[in-house]
């Protein structure tokens, strides 16, 4: 059983078209959903933009089609911080399942994430974070922080998550997303045991 949670917070938007944080978040989620469905597993997805993204639990090709339809309507226009979206969906995540968080930024508010991770790990969940480095994309508004600050905050987030038993992969604008997802999701099977 796999749950995919998407970060659709507006302030994490960067880039345009196929080289945007929204594209990376949506394509990453679609890849994880496809991998789970192709192995016969149940999968659900959720995110909170201005409109709620909701893919109920299901499996099979028809369910994957429904998930793609919902993902195509996703927009990175939400106001709720990602950790609040995750907290709102904790009750729908079955014990012992795999949870994949697709974040539109590497700047995580680590305080609330510690409690969320502990709650999920105590129920036997396996956790994978796909962190899209929004600062590697051309900014939509304002100037990005200095590169040294981005690198430090990214290292801090990765260390924090990995030290709590989560698997982490950072996705950058310079990467070929298809090749990166092929490696991280399918070959390495990062979201499995």
Polypeptide structure, described:
It is a single chain. This protein has about 190 residues and is of the alpha/beta class. It is built from 6 helices and 8 strands. The strands form 2 sheets. A 6-stranded mixed β-sheet has the order 5-4-1-6-7-8, sandwiched between helices. A two-stranded antiparallel ribbon has the order 2-3. About 40% of the residues are buried. The mean pLDDT is about 90.
Summarize this structure briefly.
The chain is an alpha/beta fold.
- What is the terminal separation in angstroms? 12 Å
- Oligomeric state as shown: single chain
Strand content: 15-25%
Sum up the overall morphology in one term.
globular
Number of helical stretches of at least 4 residues? 6
Tell me the structural class: alpha/beta
Using DSSP, what is the number of strands? 8
* Radius of gyration, taken over Cα atoms and rounded to an integer in Å: 15 Å
Instruction: Please provide the ordered H/E string of secondary-structure elements.
Output: EEEHEEHHEHEHEH
What is the average per-residue confidence, as pLDDT, rounded to a whole number?
Answer: 91
State the low-pLDDT regions, or none.
none
Main β sheet profile? 6 strands, mixed
Helix content: 40-55%
Going across the major beta sheet, what is the strand order?
5-4-1-6-7-8
């Amino acid at each position: 059983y796999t749950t995919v949670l998407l970060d659709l917070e507006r302030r994490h938007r960067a880039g345009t078209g196929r080289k945007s944080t929204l594209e990376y978040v949506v394509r990453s989620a679609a890849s994880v959903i496809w991998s789970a469905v192709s192995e016969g597993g149940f999968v659900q997805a959720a995110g909170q933009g201005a409109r709620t993204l909701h893919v109920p639990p299901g499996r099979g090709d028809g369910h994957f089609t429904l998930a793609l339809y919902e993902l195509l309507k996703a927009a990175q226009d939400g106001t709720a911080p990602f950790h609040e979206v995750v907290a709102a969906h904790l009750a729908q995540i079955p014990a012992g399942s795999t949870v994949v968080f697709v974040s539109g930024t590497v700047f995580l508010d680590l305080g609330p994430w510690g409690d969320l991770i502990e709650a999920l790990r105590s129920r036997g969940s396996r956790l994978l974070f796909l962190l899209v480095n929004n600062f590697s994309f051309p900014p939509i508004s304002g100037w990005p922080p200095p590169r040294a600050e981005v690198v430090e905050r990214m290292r801090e987030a990765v260390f924090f998550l990995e030290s709590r038993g989560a698997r982490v992969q950072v996705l950058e604008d310079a990467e070929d997303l298809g090749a990166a997802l092929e490696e991280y999701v399918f070959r390495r099977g990062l979201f499995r045991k």
